[in-house]
Amino acid sequence: MTVLGFSTGLDSFANPTEIGPLYPFVGAEWFFVLLAVVLWLLWHVLQIRLENRDNERAVQTYERIGLDRVMFYGGSADVPSDEEWARREEQRRRVQTPSAGEPSSDLDDPVEKLPPVPPGRNDG
């Protein structure tokens, strides 16, 4: 009696030379290898397309706001907007050149501490 109606057709393992493969889909190995290769190549094509799209977006960002500014912040994800950039530059100028009545040290300055202006970018 077989379990769930599956049978190998063997009654004894007395003659192992007559026993063939005991796994499902015998003869379909080439189909599965071909399927794996096709899926692998498809993955590469899709990955290249995604990376090209990301690179094009990065180049557009670099051209729009300047490579120095992007590299200073470690990539386009952390770059502040143009308005935020102008506000920070104005705060930096004010802190760097104190006049009468303005704080003369970083300890007296209530303005948040900002990173320095990256080199080569002074179009604010």
Helix content: 40-55%
Count of alpha/pi helices: 3
Provide the structure class: mainly alpha
Q: First CA to last CA: what distance? A: 86 Å
Helix-strand blueprint:
Layout: H1 29-65, H2 67-72, H3 82-96
Tags for this model:
mainly alpha
Structure description:
This protein has 124 residues and is an all-alpha fold. Helices cover 47% and strands 0% of the residues. The chain has 3 helices and no strands. The radius of gyration is 34 Å and the shape is rod-shaped.
Quick description:
The protein has 124 residues and is mostly helical.
